[in-house]
Amino acid sequence: MTTGKVILVGAGPGDPGLITVKGLAWIRQADVLVYDRLIPMALLDESRPDCERIDAGKAQHDHKIPQPQLNALLVDKAREGKLVVRLKGGDPFVFGRGGEEALVLHAAGIPFEIVPGVTSAVAVPAYAGVPVTQRDMATAFTVFTGHENPDKPESAVDYAALAACARAGTLVLLMGVTYLDTIMRELLKHGIAPDLPALVIENGTLPNQRTVSGTVSTIAALAREAAIRPPALTVIGEVVRLRAQGVDWFGE
Ligand code: SAH
Fold first, then answer.
1. How many CA atoms lie within 13 A of 70 on its CB side?
2. Going by CA atoms, what residue is nearest to atom 6 of ligand 1?
3. Does 197 contact ligand 1 (Cβ within 6 A)?
4. What is the pLDDT of residues 141-189, one digit of tens each?
5. Segment 103-143, tens digit of pLDDT
6. What are the b/e assignments for 202-238, b being 16+ CB within 10 Å?
7. What does the DSSP assignment read for 49-84?
8. Of 94, 138, 147, 161, which shows the fewest CB atoms inside 10 Å?
């Protein structure tokens, strides 16, 4: 039997229309579809009726399938000769563990392809009327993870460097709802401007999109009051002002 193949496909940030043409074509061909929690569920209807659909559902503290088992599953299905589509939220290589899965496939000698996706880091701000760069406002944008508790001594996030990045441009914080308070405190400690505009966006690109607007010093309390829940991201920088200046187009 010939070995199958694994395609790591980015499903986009939530709006099902934001899948790529190439990604959709692979979903329609798949023998096996292994999908994450944050993918637009409407995309599952695009797979063949006989396609095996496997929910890898990765809620934060409730990994339905632990990563090593998931890696083994991809390898096993491909060894059965199957065309496996591994569907991930946003882009597979932006905080999506796509790189880890690609390395496992390489080590197992399984052919694979990557189909990049529309990342939430850019698309979710766009649906909230925030361009991540703008001439005279931001010459860079920096995407970072808030998944780690900054109070942990072993936290790998360099807040001094991030506070410096905020002087050059925009910061986009993914997975940071739980620790928003401590993350903002760390940034302030390292000299970020306290009155820099900040916007939290929950369920971005979806009909139930919600935003909370404030500054670096106020945003954590405001998000807490509004009971913001994942998936949500926070965008920080002068570009946030453009939303109120007329770029907000999606409506909520
Ligand atoms: N690979 C994904 C990111 C995975 S990390 C990508 O490229 O988009 C998951 C984090 O992405 C969430 O915790 C949240 O911060 C952000 N996110 C994903 N979808 C989102 C959405 N629809 N609205 C707001 N944030 C979202």
1. 24
2. 90
3. no
4. 999 998 766 677 667 789 999 999 999 999 999 998 989 999 999 999 9
5. 999 999 999 999 999 999 999 999 999 999 999 999 999 99
6. bbbbbeebbbbbbbbbebbebbeeeebebbbbbbbbb
7. TT-EEEE--EETTEESS-HHHHHHHHHHHHHTT-EE
8. 161
DSSP state for residue 12 in the 8-state scheme: B
> Could you say which of 55, 64, 137, 175 is catalytic?
175
Contact between 5 and 83 under an 8 Å Cβ cutoff? The reply is yes
Separation between Cα atoms, residue 139 and residue 167, nearest integer Å: 10
- Catalytic residue check, 36: yes
Structural domains in the chain, sorted by start: 5-115 (3.40.1010.10), 120-247 (3.30.950.10)
Q: How far apart are CA 192 and CA 184, in angstroms?
A: 9
Q: Name the residue type at position 63.
A: H
Q: Is 96 in the pocket of ligand 1 (CB under 6 A)?
A: yes
Positive or negative CA dihedral for 58, 56, 145, 233? negative
Q: Using a 6 Å cutoff on CB, does residue 239 contact ligand 1?
A: no
